[in-house]
Design a protein that fits this description.
Strand order of the largest sheet: 3-2-4-1-10-9-11-15
Strand content: 15-25%
Structural class: alpha/beta
Number of strands: 25
Bound molecules: 6-O-phosphono-alpha-D-glucopyranose
Radius of gyration: 25 Å
Length: 612
């Protein structure tokens, strides 16, 4: 949801900012812009363009620039359409102040009328534009002071960075809820929405808290948080791998990330699973005795993370016999929250930034529940708004359609379920050992599958259905969240309408959608509901629909019922969400590619949704 980067140092920064923006493009990509402080502060060079960064690059041109202070922005429109005038950076009337922002200024309408009443002419429809005007108005020779005063006048959730021609060599940022961090290099500093923006140059990061204002120059960072300036914010060295931000020989990030799932699963397991089946979730923030007393679990999440949560419900209820409520965060946050002490809330968010998930976690935390963030990003807001953390170790995910973080989330939830199952005495030690072995085998199974002939066959099958206008997905039990996730993958990257339903509910509506030849994807993996699913397949076939079944390797029956079969590795039925989703990721991918679409940057979507 918009990516921002600022640089101050001694190097020419045009290219640094453009490549930094490329690393942030997953956050938004409808338009982009860059502002360079030229001539030692004599003027701002502003270039903005509609489209992705390739378009901005072209607009910027090849000419080198001596500027050593600059800002960049990649936009996902909230206020105002996708136009050059609405792209960032936004500047003040004199063209002396430039600002890039991620988030929303909620009181911008009243600020805008106030400024207009004072004669300010607005040139965009954005909420952001009030910021450069307000900063110019408050400026008395100290940019940090002006920004601090402006933060007292604005409301909303935001992260922004400003620069002023009168103070070359300085950038000032502010954050409330939305992410902003300082990258500390050798004689240079960055302010950015996310670490990948500067990872090529430094791994040293200073994290900022919500509500803070920060000023950087090439060699120092000063932070204000209501207690006066602080100049010694600790520096954390991040372990992120720069290779994650490269496609590494794959045609897209999404395909690369699908293939990284075995590693994501191995790493998420890591050393957490002992030889005796015990589980060590190091940063849960709850000792075993307290965890054993948990009576109810609520899972809150959005999008693909929510689908992982749905799988988690089956795992926890089956292995630990603890009731689990799983809900999309945007709904949970506005219901009467009945969570309280003794309840465990798990907020699943790969980015650790999704506004609705953070809000839902906050609501439950305020009521005294123990809140755990299940996230892929160290230092993210979710880790700071929670009492404990479970990290997935999937590495950076760039493709907007989540893949490896999803399967890693399911693995992490399985570890929690196993631990809880032992603590609650719902699993015997032998049972726990067997499940631990099953979990250990999962990454190898996915690896073997990805290296087999099956993915090519999935492509071949998908190619035959690529022009279908609608897909219905059906499944039962753990097959339901697999359907939801498979259907989401297809619709988000191919723009083909999909409907995903529990197969038993099909007769109550979706069956009316079927016509001869309609493709119906059925998750029909082995397990106690297999026969029921087969009955649903018969009902679908009786309407002339074409069935594409996802089935367990070695199942001899499914071939008699389905038109096409996508095989997945054999694993205990409750763990099939990890293995069965992989063919469906590839199926969605192949259809989108067959239709010539950009799977890494699907239209209108953003990887990280930092607005409500
Ligand atoms: C967006 C992304 C999805 C993601 C969802 C939740 O919609 O496009 O891929 O699943 O946000 O994101 P989170 O970072 O909270 O897991």
């Amino acid at each position: 949801m918009c990516g921002i980067i600022g640089y101050v140092g001694s190097r020419s920064c045009k290219e640094l900012i453009l490549t930094g923006l490329e690393r942030l493009e997953y956050r938004g990509y409808d338009s982009a812009g860059i502002a360079l402080l030229e001539g030692g502060g004599s003027h701002l060079e502003l270039v903005r363009a509609i489209g992705n960064l390739a378009v901005l690059r072209e607009a910027v041109g090849e000419n080198s620039s001596p500027a050593t202070t600059g800002l960049g922005h990649t936009r996902w429109a909230t206020h105002g359409g996708v136009t050059v005038a609405n792209a960032h950076p936004q500047v003040d009337a004199e063209g002396r102040v430039a600002v890039v922002m991620n988030g929303i200024i909620e009181n911008y309408m009243s600020l805008r009328s106030e400024l207009a009443g004072q004669g300010v002419a607005f040139r965009s429809e954005t909420d952001t534009e009030v910021l450069p005007h307000l900063i110019a108005q408050e400026y008395r020779g100290d940019l940090a002071e002006a920004v601090r005063r402006v933060t007292e006048r604005i409301q909303g959730h935001y992260a922004f960075v400003a620069m002023h021609c009168d103070e070359p060599g300085r950038l000032v940022g502010a954050r409330k809820e939305c992410p902003l961090m300082v990258g500390v290099g050798d004689g240079e500093r960055f302010l950015a929405s996310a670490i990948p923006a500067f990872l090529r140059h430094t791994r040293d990061v200073q994290l900022l808290e919500s509500g803070e204002v920060v000023s950087i120059d090439a060699s120092s960072t000063t932070i204000w948080n209501g207690h006066g300036p602080e100049a010694d914010r600790p520096v954390t060295r991040v372990l992120m791998d720069e290779d994650s931000a490269e496609k590494g020989g794959h045609e897209t990030f999404m395909l690369k990330e699908i293939h990284e799932q075995p590693t994501a699963l191995w790493d998420t397991l890591g050393d957490r699973l002992g030889a005796d089946g015990s589980v060590d979730l190091e940063a849960l923030g709850l000792d075993d005795a307290s965890l054993a007393r948990v009576e109810r679990i609520h899972i809150v999440a959005c999008g693909t993370s929510f689908h992982a949560g749905l799988v988690g419900r089956y795992l926890i209820e089956d292995w630990a016999r603890v009731p689990v409520h799983c809900e999309v965060a945007s709904e949970y946050r506005y219901r009467t929250c009945l969570a309280g002490p003794g309840d465990l809330i798990i907020g699943i968010t790969q980015s650790g930034e999704t506004a609705d998930t953070l809000a839902a976690m906050r609501v439950a935390r305020e009521r005294g529940a123990h809140v755990v963030a299940l996230t892929n990003i160290m230092g993210s807001q979710a880790t700071r708004d929670s009492d404990g953390v479970i990290f997935t170790r999937a590495g950076l995910e760039i493709g907007v359609a989540a893949t490896k973080t999803h399967t890693a989330q399911v693995m992490a939830l399985a570890l929690l379920a196993l631990k809880l199952g032992r603590l609650k005495w719902a699993l015997t030690s032998v049972g726990a050992l067997e499940l631990a072995e099953d979990l250990r085998r999962l990454p190898d199974l996915v690896q073997a599958y990805l290296h087999s002939a099956e993915p090519a066959r999935v492509y071949e099958v998908a190619g035959r259905y690529a022009s279908c206008p609608f897909f219905l997905y059906l499944g039962r039990h753990v097959g339901v969240p697999v359907c939801f996730e498979g259907a989401l993958k297809l619709k988000e990257i191919s723009y083909i309408p999909t409907e995903a339903y529990p197969a038993g509910e099909m007769k109550h509506g979706p069956i009316a959608l079927l016509e001869p030849g309609s493709p119906v994807v059925v998750v029909a993996t082995d397990g106690h509901v297999f026969d029921k699913v087969v009955s649903n397949i018969q009902e679908v076939k009786a309407r002339g629909a074409a069935v594409i079944a996802v089935a367990t390797e070695g199942n001899e029956e499914i071939g008699h019922h389905a038109d096409d079969v996508l095989w997945c590795p054999r694993t205990p039925s409750i763990l099939t969400p990890v293995t069965a989703i992989v063919p469906l990721q590839l199926f969605a991918y192949a259809i989108a590619r067959a239709n010539g679409l950009n799977v890494d940057q699907p239209r209108n979507l953003a990887k990280t949704v930092t607005v409500e």
